């Protein structure tokens, strides 16, 4: 380094070596692109089995199926927190990176479920 604080050509400063490459894909960015692919799938219906607001995820039992689907907090499109027993509509998409299992996205709570009990909002 010269007295003026510049870096000689071909050398990186210590701060440059520690910075990750840019742009880094965030989890939400990957989920968003996956959700866009899901937008062409059919809307399905099911019941919320469980949802943990602190962990930010839960499970939905699809109508007529045995295996529950994972649902992430970022894929819920209503201003209300999901509760066990809520009737929901959703679309399915594969879970990255292996794309072997499915998750619920574009999740909305039915008006019937919203009116049945007192609701907590996300904010």
Describe, in plain words, how this protein is organized in 3D:
This protein is α+β, with helices and mostly antiparallel strands. 19% of the residues lie in helices and 28% in strands. It contains three helices and five strands, in the order ααβββββα. It has helices spanning 14-18, 27-38, 111-116; strands spanning 44-52, 57-62, 69-72, 87-94, 102-109. The chain has a five-stranded mixed beta barrel. Strand 2 (57-62) and strand 3 (69-72) form a beta hairpin. The radius of gyration is 21 Å and the shape is globular. Mean pLDDT is 77; it is low at 20-30.
List key phrases describing it:
123 residues, alpha+beta, five-stranded mixed beta barrel, 3 helices, 5 strands, globular
Brief description of this entry?
With 123 residues, this protein is α+β, with helices and mostly antiparallel strands.
């Amino acid at each position: 380094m010269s007295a003026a604080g510049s870096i000689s050509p071909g050398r990186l400063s210590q701060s440059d070596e520690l910075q990750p490459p840019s742009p880094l894909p965030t989890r939400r960015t990957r989920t968003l692109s996956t959700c866009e692919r899901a937008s062409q799938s059919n809307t399905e219906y099911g019941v919320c089995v469980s949802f943990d607001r602190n962990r930010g995820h839960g499970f939905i039992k699809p109508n007529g199926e045995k295996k529950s689907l994972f649902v992430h907090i970022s894929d819920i499109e209503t201003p209300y927190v999901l509760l066990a027993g809520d009737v929901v509509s959703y679309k399915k998409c594969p879970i990255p990176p292996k794309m072997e299992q499915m998750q619920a996205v574009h999740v909305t709570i039915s008006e019937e479920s919203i009116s049945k009990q007192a609701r907590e909002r996300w904010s």
